[in-house]
Amino acid sequence: MISDDEIDRLLAAAKEAAARAYCPYSKFRVGAAVLTESGAIVAGCNVENASYGLTICAERNAVFRLVGSGERPEIRAVLIYTPTTTPTAPCGACRQVLNEFGPSCEVVCRCDGPDEIRTTLDKLLPSAFGPRNLS
Ligand code: THU
Question: Residue 3: its pLDDT value, please?
Answer without folding.
Answer: 98
